[in-house]
């Protein structure tokens, strides 16, 4: 019962926030998309694979919530990475394994507006290493923003 109440509380909290409010969270980047969220997921996974990324998993939060009787707006988490680059990062910064591989969230709000959201790698580096690591994070920030912007078109 506590688990269900927690899920409902979190769902209500996030469904009441606008994209502008999401942008206020440190390290979180949210872009409004022009496309329909369910169509963006295969588009994004194809684009990632074409650019040499491995798509490890897609978690359908809406579908999973429905199995316990909870209604959510569309929400798919795409877990992906570049094993070559990720391995280099993990070799030097083992605690980055807490947040790697990278993730994009494709979701819709209560009004049906679609978004793509991700956590900036520079924020993850500070969180997991206690310092800025520009040789990795600046490039990764730029790459993820470019990918998100391309899919948001």
Main pleated-sheet profile: 5 strands, antiparallel
The CATH architecture assignment turns out to be: 2-Layer Sandwich
Which descriptor suits the 3D outline?
Answer: globular
Low-pLDDT residue intervals, each spanning 5 or more residues: 4-21
Average predicted local confidence, pLDDT? 87
What does the radius of gyration come to? 16 Å
Number of helices: 7
SSE order in H/E notation?
Answer: HHEHEHEHEEHH
Number of structural units classed as domains: 1
Name the CATH homologous superfamily.
TT1751-like domain
Main sheet strand line-up: 1-5-4-3-2
Helix content: 40-55%
DSSP E strands, number: 5
- CATH domain topology: TATA-Binding Protein
Q: State the end-to-end distance.
A: 41 Å
Structure in words:
This protein has a single domain (27-152), classed as TATA-Binding Protein. The model is unreliable at 4-21 (pLDDT under 50). It contains seven helices and five strands. 50% of the residues lie in helices and 21% in strands. The protein is α+β, with helices and mostly antiparallel strands and 153 residues long. Strands 1-5-4-3-2 form a five-stranded antiparallel β-sheet. A hairpin with a 5-residue loop joins strand 4 (102-108) and strand 5. The termini are far apart.
């Amino acid at each position: 019962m506590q688990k269900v109440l927690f899920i409902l509380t979190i769902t209500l909290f996030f469904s009441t926030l606008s994209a502008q409010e999401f942008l206020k969270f440190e390290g979180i980047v949210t872009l409004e998309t022009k496309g329909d969220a369910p169509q963006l997921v295969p588009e994004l996974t194809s684009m990632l694979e074409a650019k040499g990324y491995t798509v490890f998993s897609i978690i359908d939060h809406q579908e999973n919530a429905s199995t316990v009787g909870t209604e959510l707006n569309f929400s798919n988490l795409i877990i992906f990475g570049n094993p070559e680059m990720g391995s280099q990062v993990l070799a030097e910064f083992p605690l980055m394994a807490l947040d790697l591989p990278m993730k994009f969230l494709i979701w819709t709000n209560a009004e049906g507006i679609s978004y793509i959201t991700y956590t900036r790698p520079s924020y993850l580096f500070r969180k997991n290493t206690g310092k800025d690591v520009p040789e990795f994070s600046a490039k990764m920030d730029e790459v993820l923003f470019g990918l998100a912007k391309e899919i948001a078109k």
